[in-house]
Amino acid sequence: MQKSLFTTYALFSKWLFIALFLVASNALFTDIIIAISPNKPIKYSLFFLHFCIGVYSLYNLMQLHLTVSQLIKHLHNKSA
Question: Could you please report the per-residue DSSP string of the chain?
């Protein structure tokens, strides 16, 4: 059970890093998208792709947070 907790926590840490990276580099990605897109449909498609990647990483982050908290709660109840 503890090995499962550590594995899930490692995944949680990875997705937390990805989400924080996306939030921190949002302005940079926006500037790059504006600079490289030749027309509006491509620009808005890239913005949508950037948005979807952010939502996906936050979804994974929340799922792993719930899993880790449930495993911790289970281990706490088991030891008490």
Answer: -HHHHHHHHHHHHHHHHHHHHHHHTHHHHHHHHHHH-SSHHHHHHHHHHHHHHHHHHHHHHHHHHHHHHHHHHHHHHHH-
